[in-house]
Automatic annotation (TrEMBL):
GO biological process, one term: response to stress
Entry's EC annotation: 3.6.1.8
Name the UniProt record assigns to this protein: Nucleoside triphosphate pyrophosphohydrolase
GO molecular function: ATP diphosphatase activity
Family: Belongs to the nucleoside triphosphate pyrophosphohydrolase family.
NCBIfam families recorded: mazG, PRK09562.1
Lineage: Bacteria, Pseudomonadati, Pseudomonadota, Alphaproteobacteria, Rhodobacterales
Reaction(s) catalysed (UniProt annotation): ATP + H2O = AMP + diphosphate + H(+)
Gene: mazG
Length: 278
C-alpha cells in the first residue's frame, strides 16, 4: 500500500492545511523511524489500545459534566487515537486512514436504506432500531458469526457487555418474561453468595458474586434502566454525600479519620436530607 504522508519536511508541517491533512502528517512524522519520537515509534496496536479506551471515556466524562469548553480537546484526543491506529496499519500494509473513513461511510449508507436508498423514511424510531439490528445480523452472518452471541466485543465494560449479551439471548427467546422472576433469581443468587461465603472458598464466592451482578443487570434491563448510567449516578451521589461529610468535619478542623462511623453516618443522613429538601 502506498505511503501517502512520508516526506513532509519538518518546516512544512506548519504550512499544511488545518485539519486532517496536518494531523495525518504530524502522526507520520511522530512515527518516522529516523526522525520521529522514540515513544511513538515503539508503540503497537496493543499498547495504544488502552489509551484509546481512556480517551473515549474522557469524551464521555466531558459530556456528562456538560463541560463543552473541554469537549473539543477531548474529541481531538480521541481522533488522534484513530489516526495513530490507522498510521500503524498503513505501515504494515493493512489499510490507511482514507480506507477507515470510507469503510464507515459505506457502513452508514448500508445501514440507512431509508435515507440513502429506496426505503421509505416514514418509520418510527422503534422500527428503525429493528431494521438496524436486522442489517447488523446480516453483516455478522456475512462474517460467519452465526451464533447468537457472536460479535459482542470482549473489551466492553462488563456491565455494558452483560446488557448486550442478555439482549442477544432475549431475541431468540432466552429471557424471563416477568420482572418478578428476575427478582426471585436475585434472591436465589444472594442466598448462594452467602452460602459460598460461609462454606466455600474465594473462587466460588467470586463466581456467585458475578452471578448476582449479572442478574442485577438483567433486572435493570427489564425495568428499562441502563445499569452503567445507574451506577454512575450512584457513584456521583456517593461522592457528593461523602464530600459533604468531609466539608462538615473540616469546619471543626477535622478529617474523616478523626471521626467515627456513627458520626459520619449521621452526617450522611444530614446530606441526604439536604438533597431532598432542595
Amino acid at each position: 500500500m502506498a505511503d501517502t504522508h512520508h516526506d513532509t519536511p519538518r518546516d512544512e508541517i506548519h504550512d499544511l492545511p488545518a485539519g486532517l491533512p496536518r494531523l495525518l502528517a504530524v502522526m507520520t512524522r511522530l512515527r518516522d523511524p529516523e526522525t520521529g519520537c522514540p515513544w511513538d515509534i515503539e508503540q503497537t496496536f496493543a499498547s495504544v489500545a488502552p489509551y484509546t479506551i481512556e480517551e473515549a471515556y474522557e469524551v464521555d466524562d466531558a459530556i456528562q459534566r456538560e463541560a463543552w469548553d473541554e469537549l473539543e480537546g477531548e474529541l481531538g484526543d480521541l481522533l488522534l487515537q484513530v489516526v495513530f491506529h490507522a498510521r500503524m496499519a498503513e505501515e504494515e500494509g493493512l489499510f490507511d486512514f482514507a480506507r477507515v473513513a470510507e469503510t464507515v461511510a459505506q457502513k452508514m449508507i448500508a445501514r440507512h436504506p431509508h435515507i440513502f436508498g429506496e426505503e421509505s423514511r416514514d418509520k418510527s424510531p422503534a422500527q428503525q432500531t429493528l431494521d438496524w439490528e436486522r442489517i447488523k445480523a446480516a453483516e455478522r452472518a456475512a462474517k460467519s458469526e452465526t451464533r447468537a452471541l457472536d460479535g459482542v466485543a470482549m473489551g466492553l465494560p462488563a456491565l455494558m457487555r452483560a446488557v448486550k449479551l442478555q439482549k442477544r439471548a432475549a431475541r431468540v427467546g432466552f429471557d424471563w418474561p416477568e420482572v418478578d422472576q428476575v427478582l426471585d433469581k436475585i434472591a436465589e443468587e444472594s442466598t448462594e453468595l452467602v452460602e459460598a461465603r460461609d462454606t466455600l472458598g474465594p473462587a466460588e464466592m467470586a463466581e456467585e458474586y458475578g452471578d448476582l451482578l449479572f442478574v442485577m443487570v438483567n433486572l435493570g434491563r427489564h425495568l428499562g434502566i441502563e445499569p452503567e448510567q445507574a451506577l454512575r449516578d450512584a457513584n456521583a451521589k456517593f461522592t457528593r454525600r461523602f464530600n459533604f461529610i468531609e466539608d462538615d468535619l473540616h469546619l471543626d478542623g477535622r478529617r474523616p479519620e478523626d471521626s467515627d462511623l456513627a458520626e459520619m453516618d449521621a452526617l450522611w443522613d444530614k446530606a441526604k436530607a439536604a438533597e431532598k429538601a432542595g
